[in-house]
Sequence to fold (235 residues):
Amino acid sequence: MSLSHTLPFRTPALAPSILSCDLSAIASEVSQVLEAGSDIIHFDVMDNQFVPNLTFGPVVLQKLREAGVTAPIDVHLMVADVDRLLSDFIDAGATMISFHPHCSINPVNQLSIIKTSGCLAGLAINPDQPISVFEQYLPYCDFILLMSVFPGRSGQKFISSVLEKSKALRAIIKRSQKNILIEMDGGITQNTIAQAHQAGVDIFVMGNGIFTQKNLQDKNPYSAVTNTLRELLSN
Ligand code: DX5
Ligand code: ZN
Fold:
């Protein structure tokens, strides 16, 4: 019931969050970070209920696909009513979808819908939620998104206690013999990515850690930061 097909990206994977990009030029920002060597586009959906912020709906995702983006798109649903919105993001072209389990009446059912659609299915866990909150759902997940900030906005400080949680989760996954990926989201920068990697993380979501680090002297403004991050992941 876990990951059974070939992953559509390499690991460790860099997943820039477009929440932090120049929103007046999303398509060009996306193509630049991908060309610089990122693997996945992280798409933060906030509904002004689960969190105060209001961001992107499925139409924006569909437009990225229509603009020719073929890279994996990772939809992180921070919405109060997962069960109502989920299928719209599948239809719009998501590659992987995660949601916060207490925002669904039946998380197992929603995880199954995601998997049946061919997308990778994940649960997102807040920094103050223990592993026990989602352990029962692990057999239905392809990945677990560990929040290393509280959901709501970019640019927050990394909560380092999540590193121990990641190590504990990695051990649980190993015991389960299932191929479940760990994704971490929030406050990941050049200062924190290596620690997250050592704690067993496979996918690194990065908002400000990439998009505020442009080097306008370079042909691709994200080449330098991407190369530095890759270097930190190779040690
Ligand atoms: C927070 C979002 C994150 C955020 C990451 O609610 O889920 O994806 O955009 O941004 P940084 O990396 O700046 O913390
Ligand atoms: Zn996110």
